[in-house]
Write a structure and sequence with these properties.
By secondary structure, this protein is of the alpha/beta class. The chain has 15 helices and 5 strands. The protein has 2 domains: 160 residues, P-loop containing nucleotide triphosphate hydrolases (Rossmann fold, 3-Layer(aba) Sandwich), CATH 3.40.50.300; 116 residues, Zinc Finger, Delta Prime, domain 3 (Up-down Bundle). The longest helix has 19 residues. The C terminus is likely disordered.
Length: 338
């Protein structure tokens, strides 16, 4: 459970907006918290939930952590908090879950405060579930607050988006994120922190997760393999057999960023303009030999495959096709620099 009365350093401006809701007693009946993965959206949502429940809030609006409601919430036994998330064996939040929620919301809260519904990965609702949720949004029940969390708001129907107050989290300043990461992982040196934040595209929580699971080592190994394939020093079929066992979505995202950096190098961008500046020395020689048009075409195909990765597609065949195409791309005749 989140520390309900200690803000993350980059959450301060967002909490001020939530605190204003509390002070003015103008609580939105539906709040949509949006932001990239790894910015602590769930923590902020839980802290706002605790503040709505708390009997003796602090001066800054945050929960005290000591009252009866706070203790129930911290023990995850508060009867007026409902969490809606995708089941472990399901790919989406289903309509039956929402129908059950509608039934629960037809009853009054058991305590004097609010009833809060926390939607984790709200974008994973299927279309029937989203349509069923509209009933809650169009005819909100007494003292109920719906908090939806997503890093993919474009996947939510416009009818849902238009009925929510939106709070959008941005990535924090690099120095602030690095200082926080140093507190969490003091054994990391400056270069490791920088590389982790670059890999996480500036999202501190994601960088922390990568540090704990040694994702940086996996990333560097996969990049070296990707370069070896370009130099025809490895076999795409063998690599695909290994790669399809890795976190597929993450690996496809890495490949997309490598291609974008390759294009930037192709058009003589400075190293610091890259998503991965530390890879510039490996990417520059490739960039000088490849057709930008061919790279862009390959990038578009990669994006199309990213949309398929969560379907029952054969992942090994997907990687085989991509890696074979990558090898073929690097076998093309050297073209003049644009």
């Amino acid at each position: 459970m989140t520390n309900i009365n200690a803000l993350l350093p980059w959450h301060q401006p967002y909490w001020q907006q939530l605190q204003a809701y509390l002070q003015q007693q103008r609580i939105p009946q539906a709040l949509l918290i949006v932001g990239a993965e790894g910015l602590g959206k769930q923590q902020l949502a839980e802290q706002f939930t605790a503040a709505l429940l708390c009997n003796t809030p602090q001066a800054n609006g945050m929960a005290c952590g000591q009252c009866h409601d706070c203790r129930l919430y911290l023990a995850q036994t508060h009867p007026d908090v409902i969490t809606v998330s995708r089941a472990v064996d399901k790919t989406s939040i289903g309509v039956e879950q929402i129908r059950q929620l509608v039934s629960q919301l037809s009853l009054k809260p058991q305590y004097a405060g609010y009833r809060i519904v926390l939607f984790q990965a709200a974008d994973s609702m299927n279309s029937n579930a989203a349509n069923a949720l509209l009933k809650c949004l169009e005819e909100p029940s007494e003292r109920s607050v719906l908090i939806l969390i997503t890093d993919k708001p474009s996947k939510l129907p416009a009818t849902i988006l238009s009925r929510c107050q939106q709070l959008t989290l941005s990535k924090p300043d690099t120095s602030l994120a690095s200082a926080w990461l140093q507190q969490q992982q003091p054994n990391l040196d400056d270069q490791q922190r920088q590389n982790l934040l670059q890999l996480a595209q500036g999202a501190p929580y994601l960088a922390l997760s990568y540090a704990k699971t040694d994702v940086l080592t996996l990333y560097n190994r996969c990049f070296k393999t990707w370069i070896a394939l370009a130099k025809q020093q490895s076999q795409p079929i063998l690599i695909a057999e290994e790669w399809h066992k890795l976190p597929n979505a993450m690996l496809l995202n890495w490949m997309a960023l490598w291609l974008l950096d390759l294009l930037k190098c192709r058009f003589h961008a400075e190293a610091q303009a890259l998503y991965n500046p530390n890879l510039a020395s490996d990417l520059l020689p490739l960039a000088q030999t490849l057709s930008a048009t061919a790279v862009i075409k390959f990038y578009d195909q990669l994006l199309a495959q990213q949309k398929q990765i969560h379907t029952p597609i054969n992942k090994q065949m997907l990687f085989e096709a991509l890696l074979i195409q990558w090898v073929q791309l690097n076998q093309q005749t050297k073209l003049p620099t644009p």
